[in-house]
Here is the input.
Amino acid sequence: MASKSTRISRRRVLKTAGAAAVGTGAALLGEGALAHPSTDARGALSEVEGQGQAPAIGTNTQAGRRVRAFVKLDSTEPPTVQTITLRRLTGRQVAVRTEAAQTCYSSVGQVLLPSPTAPQNITVVGHGGVGIVEAVGPEVSAIQVGDRVIVNFHSTCGWCYSCVRGRADQCLNGGGPSEATADLNGKPVFSGTSGMTEVMVVYQEKCLPVFTSVSPVELSMLTCVGNCGLGMTMTKVPVEAGSDVVVFGAGPVGLHAVQGARIKGAARIIAVEPIAYRRDLASKLGATDVVDPWRYNERRRRPGGGGGTGTADEFDDALVNHIRDLCKLSTDRTWATGGRIGPDHVIEAVGGDRYGNVLIKPAAGSGPDPSGMTVLHQCWELVSRVGTGISGSIGFPNDQRVQIPPNQFADSSKHWWAGTAGGTHTRRDVPRYVRLAEVGKLDLKALASRTYPLNQTTEAYRVAMNREVVATIVTPTT
Ligand SMILES: [Zn+2]
Ligand SMILES: [Zn+2]
Here is the structure.
């Protein structure tokens, strides 16, 4: 365990690094990029250094600073890199110089396809990121200038109805600042959940200070997809040592879930994934079995079953049968501790390949049903009598319905959780995810495949959309 003096020294190192890198950032921006030299972030840091550990209330000097950001304009056109002018920080706002931000797959439609309708506000694209705090608003109490923070996509405010009931994964104070944080050609710019910008302006409840040697690029895997994937197997779903777990989807979310299941001591981890290199990676990261869903893409209606409502249990599903075979216990005898059918826990990390009404077709491949509906039905069917299923994805067609036989829904004792935070309480759980990465039990490096500068953000999303690699990361200031 690090001594107190080590911690202080680490903080100083971060501050120094922050100040140095701000200098680089300013150079990158070119002459005149910082509209008010006396109010630049370097000045802010010096001011705080002089005050020791005091909160940086006196450093609220971001107003007028010009930074590059990947923004969705108030038009139907895809986002582009623009130079925006920051406003003065208010209340709980924090300005973070972005070191790394992961391109979440759920944004690829927004980035690569024209919007069906023009958004009302100009908004910075992204699902959080990692960076160094350069300035804080007057009400910020937990974050200090110089801190390296993970800016989570999911908030933990600690005060809302969900948070005080232990359900921070459903925090009601999520999203970006409700007021504009910058301007572009006289129009207000909203931060959104931020990420793809040189400086993120977000509320402090999204920020988690971290004191670690794990690189910002690796840490950026935890801002959104890591919260979801690790949360699914390490929080809400009671994966125990010796459990059997099946994970549908070995993308950025599913591969975190696979690792979470391994860390929790699952006996059997079955990854279902259509893309070969992702199956290989799942095996390296802890899956004991990998399954290509195209090889078991056969669903036959059961003779006389179900009354024709199109529900999962009406089908003789080859993939479900295969997974049940893999999970067969050494005895079926219910008087000898046997009798379970299928895995203990089922994780859904696939989603639908859809943006509005447009179907997204990843070049590297996708599963047999791009709507994602078949996977949802297979997951429900696979959950055993006392097992747990959890889903953590989006993109399903709104005009379709998950159909569950009412007697199963009412009486089967299957448990089901849903939510893209996967059950993660960011302040409780993300520090332990970081710790697991530090000691080598969580491999973030294998997931953080490729980095891109800010001016190639569109390309980074394109590669993510095509699933050419597991994850792409934008590094706006490094
Ligand atoms: Zn995301
Ligand atoms: Zn909350």
